[in-house]
Write a structure and sequence with these properties.
By secondary structure, the protein is α/β, with parallel strands linked by helices. It has one domain (2-189): 3-Layer(aba) Sandwich (Rossmann fold), CATH 3.40.50. It has helices spanning 13-27, 62-70, 72-76, 93-109, 132-141, 151-189, and strands at residues 2-8, 31-36, 48-56, 59-60, 80-86, 117-122, 124-125, 146-147. The radius of gyration is 21 Å and the shape is elongated. The structure holds flavin mononucleotide.
C-alpha cells in the first residue's frame, strides 16, 4: 500500500517519530513517504495516511489542523491514524492526568473525522523551548526536561497500523476470491448476474 506519514513539528521530535513510524511501515513492505504537512502534495495516489503533530498550548500546531481542514474529503475516504506529541512523561503523575485530557480535545477538533487509532507520545522537552513564565510554571509543578520518547512504544504502534492494513488487504483478497467464486458459480449454472 502507498502510505503517507505527514507531520507538524516545531522543534524536530515529532518529525523524528514520524520518520521512525514510516521506516517501520516500510519494513513491512509498504511504499511510504514521510513529509512535513506543508510539503504533502496530492493525496490522489495515497491509500492510507498517518498524521502527527506536536502539541502546543493543548492543541495541535496550526499547520496540522490546516492539513486536516484542507484535505477533509480525501482523509475521510482513506484509512487514517493520528498521533500527538506532547510532554505527559515530563510531568508528575497528578499533573499528567490533566495533560492526557488534551487528547480528547484534540480528537474532538477533528470533528466528524474518525481516525482508526490515535496515540499520544511524549517528545523532547528542553528549557530553551519555553519562555521564562512557562519554565517557572514547569519548575513549580515538578516538570522535568529531557528526551521522553518511548521508541519501543512508537515501534509497537507502527506495527499495529501495519497489522490493521494487512488485515484490510487480507479481507479484500478474501472478498475478491468470494466474488470470483460467485462468478464461476453463475457461469457454471448459466444464471444471469
Ligand atoms: C510553547 C510550547 C507549548 C507546549 N505546550 C504543550 C502542551 O500544551 N501540552 C503538552 O503535552 N506539551 C506541550 N509542549 C511540549 C511539546 O509538545 C514537546 O516538547 C514536543 O516534543 C514538541 O514536539 P516537536 O519537537 O516536534 O516540536 C509545549 C512545548 C512548547 C515549546
Amino acid at each position: 500500500m502507498r502510505i503517507l506519514v505527514v507531520y507538524a513539528s516545531a522543534d524536530g521530535s515529532t518529525a523524528e517519530i514520524a520518520r521512525r513510524i514510516a521506516q517501520r511501515l516500510r519494513e513491512r513492505g509498504h511504499e511510504v513517504s514521510d513529509q512535513p504537512v506543508g510539503s504533502a502534495g496530492s493525496l490522489h495516489d495515497i491509500d492510507a495516511i498517518v498524521l502527527g503533530s506536536a502539541v502546543h498550548d493543548r492543541q495541535w500546531l496550526d499547520e496540522a489542523t490546516n492539513f486536516v481542514n484542507t484535505n477533509r474529503q480525501a482523509v475521510s475516504s482513506r484509512p487514517f491514524w493520528t498521533f500527538s506529541v506532547g510532554m505527559p512523561d515530563a510531568l508528575p503523575k497528578a499533573v499528567r492526568k490533566i495533560a492526557r485530557t488534551e487528547e480528547d480535545a484534540i480528537i474532538n477538533q477533528l470533528g466528524d473525522l474518525r481516525p482508526r487509532g490515535h496515540q499520544l507520545f511524549s517528545g523532547v522537552v528542553k528549557p530553551s523551548q519555553f519562555p521564562l513564565a512557562s519554565r517557572i510554571f514547569l519548575h513549580l509543578v515538578g516538570g522535568r526536561y529531557g528526551d521522553f520518547r518511548d521508541w519501543p512504544a512508537i515501534d509497537a504502534w507502527a506495527l499495529e497500523i501495519a497489522d490493521q492494513l494487512d488485515g484490510a488487504a487480507t479481507m479484500s483478497d478474501a472478498a475478491k476470491t468470494r466474488l470470483a467464486k460467485q462468478d464461476n458459480d453463475r457461469e457454471s449454472t448459466g444464471s444471469a448476474p
